[in-house]
Amino acid sequence: MTTLPIVDLTTQYEILAAEIDAAVKGVFGSGHYIMGPNVAAFEREIAQYIGTPFAIAVNSGTDALHLALRSLGIGPGDEVITTPFTFAATSEAIGIVGATPVFVDIDPETYNLDPSKIEAAITRKTRAILPVHLYGRPAPMVPIMEIARKAQLFVVEDCAQAIGARVGGRQVGTFGDFGCFSFFPSKNLGCYGDGGLLTTASEDLAEQARMLRVHGSKIKYSHSSLGINSRLDEVQAAILRVKLRHLDGWNLARRAAASRYDVLLAEVPGVKIPTPDGDGQHSVFHQYTVRVDDRATVQSSLAKAQIQSMVYYPIPLHLQQVHADLGYTLGSMPHSERAAQEVLSLPIFPELSSADQVRVAIALQDALAILDPA
Ligand SMILES: *Cc1c(COP(=O)(O)O)cnc(C)c1O
Known about the structure:
The chain has helices at 9-28, 37-50, 61-71, 89-96, 141-151, 203-213, 234-244, 247-266, 295-304, 334-342, 354-371, and strands at 54-58, 79-82, 100-103, 126-130, 154-158, 166-167, 170-171, 178-182, 196-200, 217-219, 222-223, 281-282, 288-291, 343-346.
């Protein structure tokens, strides 16, 4: 028996090999390798897919976040409200521009920012709210946008795990001033290297972001502000164009796999399955994440049954050494801290078979039966 991985990228490649190989070969022979016709076409196609006027391809999701903040003029002395229960890049981007992350605890049912706690965190220095659509579940954008409008704050959405997720029929990345996406290989839409994207409805902001991604330059060799090199290359854009056509099907397959897990695991004592989508919410299950007690034991017994599982994320950002200067202590974000102790993500990817899901459910049941022999 081979190990069931948490995400299987090779099966998907094998299915698409002919299309992807042809696309990549086309680039090799074209003489255009960075920000050429494939990047331009990909920007048009993905803007249309997401339903946004402007899409700007960059080198990673992390760059997308940091260039969004830079484009909004956020920097030293400014505060940005975000969640501590996310990947490090979220608060890293805030730090890179010289601003200060201000953490607000999550809703333990959804793992996303709890909107009822945001207003208390707003100060005179607050410039933006940075919600994350964690695990592919859309953050509560309606109340977040309302709070931001009242307090005149920018909103930057971290959509790295949630491309295609919707709230009330509208895709994530179309609510805030910027949406920031990642095409890291294991994301729902992944390339074969690094890649990222900014979306915005503002022509001015789009122009600002486009300038910053190429050394702060609008006209070649004329530099009006301090930018970086965050160009996307043609090979990745060509791959993404092929894969974008399959994204909706893949996201539906992820949702179907999640529903199968829900049924299989509903009766397993000691496993808390994900809370169902709320009204108008459409999650895309970048992860299928359960909660268990004594997670380390469960995880090692899954490993013995040759099933990979992962913890996203074991240390909330407010307790990371990199943010020690902010002065947060254990107990300041109780829901995030508890989630960090209990969450366990199970294998999920579009090609996951129901037979393998049954295997996961049985292994989980066995793991918990050992822990709690009834
Ligand atoms: C992956 C990810 C990022 C960073 O994207 P990269 O392309 O790896 O730089 C940012 N935020 C979240 C929530 C992510 O999952």
